[in-house]
Amino acid sequence: MNNNMGMFKVRVAEVLEETSNIKSFRLKRVDGALFDPYPAGAHIDVVGPTAVVRQYSLCSPPHDLDEYVVAVKLEPGSRGGSQALHDHVEVGHELEISAPRNLLSVAEDADRHILVGAGIGVTPMISIAYHLHRAGEEFELHYFARSAKEAAFRDLLGERSGFGERVHFHFGLQREDQPDVLDGAFADLSSASHVYTCGPQGFMDGVLERASSVIPKDNVHIEHFQAGEPVDTDSDAPFEIELDDEVYEVPVGRSIVQVLGDNGIEVDTTCREGICGTCIMGVLRGEPDHRDQCMSSSEKSANDQIAACVSRSKSPRLVLELF
Ligand code: FES
């Protein structure tokens, strides 16, 4: 297997139109060998035909190491990511992918697991469901989508998966009806139950709010990685950061984490993509330009924390503290 800086070559074995704007891609190793084992809920980086890198959940059974399946939603305004994968990738083409990474680990000591996916956010829930089903764990999967037509993997989850009545479809629900449905899903949970969710930020905020009224907040696992297209960086400008009375300039094209690293101050990081929250620092003064996927809207508007691997500043200087 080719391995270039942690990237691997795979061949596209099948492309399926799951909905009018979602395609699934079945990927196999070019050398015909098995993939390494990976945890349920993991995702991979995929380098598309235009060299743009995007993250996609693995939605195949984690015990099936013969192939990976990812689902790609065509994002509006996509210039090189999802659009290129939809338009130019066919069976037989080779792609480069990373090894799986996981930011959404399954709590192995839970008494019950409730998986809540909205739209394309159902994908990490599928691999977790496969894992839990195989392990004989108690789980339910709640799948929210605008309509049955827009719900990828509906047939798979309806019959072929074998999950049976553990799958609950919620299609075409009005936003104001979602809290009642979530309350119903969470009604019988105990303090040892865990909830996992992936979908649009507002949806996940709602799941967190309803679930944490029943179970400890720490038992709610949120998958943020389904990032959209990258932010426009054309108008980026340098800014200053102050930490422990020292001032450093963050130039265009460098992150706060990198600048601090250049100056011997190591900030812990995991994803370096604004997804995991490992690098979050406190903001004592100044207004961050939030570009992460890991903080909620209310955390962002408080402006007292920053994901230092991706976010920048709207003010000339940010005064920061390390947590
Ligand atoms: S390292 Fe993951 S959000 Fe910054």
User: Hetero groups bound?
Assistant: FE2/S2 (inorganic) cluster
Low-confidence spans: 1-5
User: What's the structural domain tally?
Assistant: 3
User: How much of the polypeptide forms β-strand, as a percent range?
Assistant: 25-35%
And the CATH topology of the largest domain? Rossmann fold
Mean pLDDT: 89
CATH second-level architecture of the largest domain: 3-Layer(aba) Sandwich
Q: Measured on Cα atoms, how large is the radius of gyration?
A: 20 Å
N- and C-termini, Cα separation = 40 Å
Question: So what's the CATH class of the largest domain?
Answer: Alpha Beta
Specify the biggest β-sheet: 7 strands, antiparallel
Order of helices and strands: EEEEEEHEEHEHEHEHEEEHEEHEEE
The residue fraction in helices comes out at 10-25%
Annotation keywords:
7 helices; 19% helix; disordered N terminus; Ubiquitin-like (UB roll); 5-stranded parallel β-sheet; Rossmann fold; globular; Elongation Factor Tu (Ef-tu), domain 3; 19 strands; 7-stranded antiparallel β-sheet; binds FE2/S2 (inorganic) cluster; alpha/beta; 323 residues
Describe this structure in words.
It contains 7 helices and 19 strands. It has 323 residues and is of the alpha/beta class. The chain folds into 3 domains: 3-98, Translation factors (Elongation Factor Tu (Ef-tu), domain 3, Beta Barrel); 113-223, Rossmann fold (3-Layer(aba) Sandwich); 239-321, Ubiquitin-like (UB roll) (Roll). α4 crosses α5. The longest helix has 13 residues, at 122-134. Residues 1-5 have low confidence and may be disordered. FE2/S2 (inorganic) cluster is lined by residues 269-272, 274-279, 292, 294, 307, 309.
